[in-house]
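User: I'm putting together a teaching handout on how multi-component assemblies are represented. Below are the sequence lines for each component of a complex, exactly as they appear in our records. Could you produce the 3D structure of the whole assembly as structure tokens, so the students can see both representations side by side? Please keep the chain order the same as the input.
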Amino acid sequence: MPHIQADGLTVEFPLYHLGARSLKKRLLAKSPLRLREDESHRVVVSALRDLDFHIGRGERVALVGHNGAGKTTLLRTLAGVYEPVGGRLEVEGLIGSLIDPTAGMDQSSTGRENIVLRGLFRGLSERESEAMAEDVAAFSGLGEFIDVPVRNYSAGMQVRLSFAMATVMEPQVLLMDEWFLAGDAAFMERAREKLAELVGNADILVLATHDMSVVREWCTRAIRLDGGRIIADGPVEEVLGPAQPVPRAGEPAEAAADGPQP
Ligand SMILES: Nc1ncnc2c1ncn2[C@@H]1O[C@H](COP(=O)(O)OP(=O)(O)OP(=O)(O)O)[C@@H](O)[C@H]1O
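Assistant: Of course. Below is the structure of the complete assembly, with chains in the same order as your input.
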């Protein structure tokens, strides 16, 4: 049964090339909770500290928190990109990852070739994969660029392709960073239905975002991170509070309420 279980999950990043000893000392003194010196005398950032949570089938979880809180690190750790340095993590189920647009793509192959490879990887026959590539190519709206190597794509084109490819994966555990929801308006208009389908068919959604209206629309539960720790975990209404009234012209929107902090 698809689920995610984390016990004492801890992720750290060493900071290389910090230079002078005095700089190290200053950093460690300024942020003793987030930074520490390890056994090899490297300064390390505690990106995720001792997280305990369980996400079960049917849950749609938003990761919220200010810049640097640990949202993307947690998504990437769930996707297997980062290895925890402490604790235990179990992710059961086929993972679909909309975190880094070029992850899992061969840059020297064309968009079409990448789609076919994904199909073969999923166990489809060559003929099925090629037929699927036709549909995905049409949905991506990349036109003739579908037959150009991916390394020549613009950032927006890469998002289009990875989004289109994700729709054919049928993942059980869908991991998504918010910028996948921020493609160009015309494409997102068309993609919305597919996205709803993708989310609806997944057993678990974990979405990192600053946009509280997106959280309310897509999620049932929110985990608030701060400084790499969980400071709140519960139903969306409980963690975010009641929805703010729609702002009038000139007033900040609710989305900004969780935006960057100095
Ligand atoms: N590759 C890395 N090397 C060193 N430190 C890193 C690395 N990736 C993240 N960090 C650090 O880990 C912490 C958490 O970063 P993360 O990107 O997960 O935050 P976030 O909540 O996703 O922020 P944002 O909302 O700005 O995207 C930060 O202090 C950041 O500096």
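A couple of points students might notice: The mean pLDDT is 86. Residues 13, 45, 47, 65, 67-73 surround adenosine-5'-triphosphate (CB under 6 Å).
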